[in-house]
Structures are given as structure tokens and as C-alpha cells.
Design a protein that fits this description.
Helix content is 36%, strand content 17%. Strand 4, helix 4 and strand 5 form a beta-alpha-beta unit. The longest helix is centred in the middle third of the chain and has 19 residues. It binds NADP nicotinamide-adenine-dinucleotide phosphate.
């Protein structure tokens, strides 16, 4: 019933064809589930009654998930034998990747981690990988004025683009959700966070909004093999985010702002 309700919500927002939800066998695995975005995703999964496994490091704080009934598997996503073991321990029907590099010394974090994730997900028959990526990766790099991204950010975009390509070539059905600005956990979605296939769509989005969108795409064939941009046009931009569009005007091409009615 709840899944039907979610599917209806999804339809209302995206005006797409009727979602064809695949069989519900196997857990949902969340990579980066102890993080800010990942923990919001874990919360909505548990609330929806999904059997959820979180991959965490031995050092990860589980505080954000303390009240939740989840399984943990411990390891390091950059160690292939850990990833192989992770997939061998249980049958996951879907993987949600909310990992983020925490050390700039880890050059190629997204490419390397996705290489292992996609490889072992394919071998173990995972039916969907939802990858949280970034606007600025792949074809969306052209939205930025040349030379406006700091070199570390540009390198991260290249790394994320490489991860997207590995996933797309892996043969595992995928859903890529790119975002430009992730708002702090204290900012809640307006209710209108949405996914767009228009790659000129840019803006901010909250982590709880992304969590809801992840749940709506989970097991939803409409979302398979798609690369979306996630935005919430009605979310409250406060504090250092209040002047976000002025910052965007410095880094994004004028036609991108125009297409968003922000010129
Ligand atoms: N922040 C933004 O404005 C922004 C904008 C666009 C896109 N994004 C993307 O959104 C996603 C989530 O961002 P976030 O800020 O919510 O992330 P976050 O809070 O930093 O969480 C990152 C997660 O990745 C885990 N992790 C990192 N290295 C790992 C490793 N070697 N092995 C296993 N787990 C590892 C962390 O584990 P620990 O708990 O052990 O640290 C944590 O659970 C990322 O892909 C990020 O690039 C962010």
C-alpha cells in the first residue's frame, strides 16, 4: 500500500508512465549510509519497511542511525576484497551509493570505488544501483563558465564523471541523481524536490528531499538507466545559502541562469 502511495506521488511529480516495480527480494544496501545524505536515505528506507544494510568503516560513527533497525557490514570501499566480501554476505536487490570522498589525497576515489561496486554488483545480480553524483560531471560540465571551478572541484567532477561511465558500462541497471548544492540537514524539503532529465536544470536540494526521491526511484523501472538532475525550486535558502543564485551567476553560463528564469 505504501509502495503504491509512493508510486502515485512519483507519478504526480514526474508525469511519466505508470511505474513498473520489480520484485522485492533482497535487502537494500546503502553505501555511505552513516553520512549526512546516506543517513537520511537509510531513515526513509527503514520507515518504508525496507530491509536495509549499511556499509560502514570500522571508524564510522553510527550515531545518526542509532534508533534504526539496520544491518551493518564493515569495510573500506577502496579495498576490493572488502567490496567482494560485502556482496557475498547477502543478496541485495538494490544499492544506493551516497559515498563521499573525505580525504583529497584519495585521488580517483569515485572512479575506484565505482569500479569495485559495479563489478561485484553485476556478479551478484544486483537489479539497480542508484548513484548520487554531482552536477558538473559528464555532459553537465558545459553548464559552467570555463575556468570558474577551483582545481580540486574540477578534479572531483572528472572523477565523478568517470564513475558515472563505469556504472553505465557495467550492465547493472542504474539511476544517477546529480546535485549541485546539497543543503544542510537542518533544511527540510519544500515537498517539491524533483528529478529532471533536462541537464540544464540546476539548483539546490535538501538531503531529506533526495532521500525521498531515492525511495521513489527504488525498484521503479521508470528510473532505470536515467541520469537525472535533482532540485527543489521551492526550498528555503537561508544563511550562507540565501545568495546562492548570485554565486551561481559567477560560475554558471548565462544561458543556464536564463533557462531557470534567474537572469
Ligand atoms: N555537499 C555538497 O554540497 C554536495 C554537492 C553535490 C554532490 N554531493 C555528493 O553527495 C554525496 C553525499 O554527500 P554528503 O555530504 O552527504 O557525504 P558525507 O556526509 O561526507 O558522507 C560520506 C559517506 O561516505 C563514507 N565513506 C567515505 N570514504 C569511505 C570509504 N573509503 N569506505 C567506506 N565508506 C566511506 C563515509 O563514512 P564515514 O561515516 O566513516 O565517514 C560517509 O558515510 C556525495 O557523492 C557528494 O559528493 C555533495
Amino acid at each position: 500500500m505504501y509502495r503504491f502511495f509512493l508510486a502515485s506521488l512519483f507519478l504526480a511529480r514526474t508525469v511519466l508512465v505508470i511505474p513498473d516495480v520489480y520484485a522485492r527480494d533482497g535487502d537494500v544496501l546503502v553505501l555511505g549510509g552513516t553520512g549526512e545524505l546516506g543517513s537520511e536515505i537509510v531513515k526513509v528506507l527503514v520507515e518504508a519497511g525496507e530491509s536495509t544494510t549499511v556499509f560502514s568503516r570500522p571508524t564510522s560513527s553510527r550515531e545518526r542511525l542509532s534508533a534504526l533497525d539496520v544491518e551493518y557490514v564493515t569495510g573500506d570501499i577502496l579495498i576490493e576484497t572488502d567490496v567482494e566480501r560485502l556482496f557475498s554476505l547477502s543478496s541485495y536487490r538494490a544499492v544506493i551509493d551516497a559515498l563521499a570522498m573525505d580525504d583529497e589525497a584519495n585521488t580517483g576515489f569515485y572512479e575506484k570505488s565505482q569500479k569495485y561496486i559495479s563489478k561485484w554488483a553485476k556478479i551478484y545480480g544486483v537489479q539497480q544501483i542508484i548513484l548520487h553524483g554531482a552536477i558538473g560531471a559528464g555532459d553537465s560540465s558545459s553548464l559552467f563558465k570555463p575556468g570558474t571551478l577551483p582545481s580540486n572541484r574540477a578534479a572531483s567532477m572528472k572523477d565523478k564523471a568517470a564513475a558515472e561511465e563505469i556504472l553505465k558500462a557495467s550492465g547493472v541497471p542504474f539511476t544517477i541523481m546529480r546535485h549541485l548544492t546539497l543543503l544542510p540537514l537542518t533544511t527540510k524539503e519544500s515537498g517539491n524536490a524533483r528529478l529532471s532529465l533536462q541537464h540544464s536544470t540546476v539548483g539546490a536540494v535538501s538531503r531529506d528531499g533526495l532521500a525521498r526521491l531515492s525511495l521513489e526511484c527504488l525498484g521503479n523501472k521508470v528510473c532505470l538507466n536515467k541520469t537525472y538532475h535533482a532540485v527543489d525550486d521551492d526550498v528555503q535558502l537561508t544563511g550562507r545559502y540565501a545568495r546562492l543564485w548570485e554565486r551561481y551567476a559567477r560560475i554558471l553560463r548565462p544561458e543556464v541562469l536564463e533557462s531557470r528564469g534567474m537572469d
